[in-house]
Amino acid sequence: MPLAVSARRCVLVALAALLLGVWTVPSSAAETAAASGASAAATATPTIPPPQPPTGLLYADVPNDAGGAVSLTWETSPDDSAGRGLVDGYFLERALSPGGPWEVVDSVDAGVRAHTDVTVRRNETYFYRVAAFGPGGTTRAGAAAGPAIGRSSWFNLSRVSVLVFLLAFFLLVLYYMYMAQTGRKPFVRRLAGIDAIEEAIGRATEMGRPVLYVPGIQDIDEIQTVAGLVILESVAKMTARYDTPLRVPVSYPIPFTIAQEMVRSGHVDAGRPDAYDPDSVQFVSPEQFAYVAAITGIMLRERPAAHLFFGSFYGESLMLSETGFATGAIQIAATANVHQLPFFVVACDYTLIGEEMFAASAYLSGEARLVGGLKGADMLKLAIVAVVIVGCVLETLGIHTLTVWMQTQ
Amino acid sequence: MKREIPLFLTAVIGAIVLAGFFVPHQFISVPADYFQRCAVIVVAFGYALGGANLVRVNLEGIARRHPDWPYKVVLLVGMLVTLVFGLFVDRAKFQDPGTVSIWIYDNIYVPMNSTMFALLAFFIASAAFRAFRVRTAEAALLAVSALIVMIGRVPLGDAIMAGVFDHPGLPDWVRHLRLEPLQQWIMDWPQNAAKRAILIGAAMGVMATGLRVILGIERSYLGGSD
Asked: Disulfide check for A356: which of A14, A352, B41, B112 has CB 3.0–4.6 Å away?
């Protein structure tokens, strides 16, 4: 086909298509006609414009932190309204200088007008801008805001109430410790569970069976484990005095080494260092059910006459105490994990609830300073009860000052 | 000095970590974070001591032919196989799918763990049998409360109750006696009040123990006599 004829045909097809509004070129006419047709179609379809940019970007250093966050607020795009569908969200862009280069640090949904950038470095200067995006594309970002600097605070003001109570607690405890040391030792009512420890060890001695001591399944960073290990020393002292074997399976390595020291120390204090058996304390496994399997194995094979559970326990509490119950051993448990207390109450002969476990070392040692500390803790509890009652009254009256002051971050 | 240096370190590090709760400034927060990270290294050394104890105690048991010595063999072989494959075969990829370590985890560890966990159902049944025996007024209260909460919290229980209480012939006030809202009331009020009381008391105990450790009043955890 001659070139001139072909070109004329293309022009005719294009004109016909324009008139008909149809851009399908049925013939094998030149690709150029189709391409030009497609571009014309894009022009003809109603386009969605990019959303208008958000405005009023403000920045502020987040207070009471270590300087790692900057909060941003802005006015949403005028196109950001429900049902219009012009805005899908906003890009938050950050740069080290007002001229860029800009990096997108995060994005938020449409309608959101605040965000906290928690990826900033302390004392670094940043500039921010916000761009809206939607089906029509991304709008040009608004004006940059800055310089924003994340500065670290010297004091977390939202924790003033905690500090006040902590200082009051420390002062009360120290005061009553001092009083106890000067001879005014406070009266402490006896706890049946603690008194029963010696009874349980005595029973094991009579039966010629060992005592099993379980210091919980948590590591040393759990304060209940610390309390459990402190009580272990007194238990070890008693077993050494009665010449009764002691078994202490431990779940984590650091409590294991401390437990060894406690048992050895108990034997030394009882004047029986020769009776100390290094294998009485055994590292088992930090795995919950492996630990359970090992302890229940000891219970069923060696048949200890007394089981003492002092520490932090979870789902294994019932498995341990029920297996122990089946063996007929006398069982004493102590934990501050409230969800496990019902299981221990059901399956054990004595259960020390929450704070009673932390008080046990003072009871067992009888040391004046430790006993004085108990009175200090009781006095703060009294103060907390008073604050709770006052808070209830104020809230009922519609006064929220105390509640707000007590809230922490 | 054997006790003074650990006591000094405990007091200083404890005070810094405690101060870190109130002072976010890097002057305090950076060393506080650093000390907490150091704990990981100490724990790693602790595992070496724990592992050595585990091997020694079980080897002794095997050598002396304790009644349960075959279990000790299984334990040591299992430990050795897992360690060898993890350290020398799978190495850094021990958590990747297809490795022997993951096979051991999926096919040995997980089923054994699940089996132990499943036993809990039987322990709960036997413990509940004893707990709900009505002997005193308190035990009766416990049993009734437990019954309401247990039936009210399962969908089937609520569905059964709905069939009874939603009968069109019943007055409106009867509908409010369904177990679902009743059990929620028990959980929200009496249960929560008791739980919070225990938690406040326990928190006091935690603070008192922490203070005693930081001040060196509670020093028995260091071992040895004064």
From this structure: A352
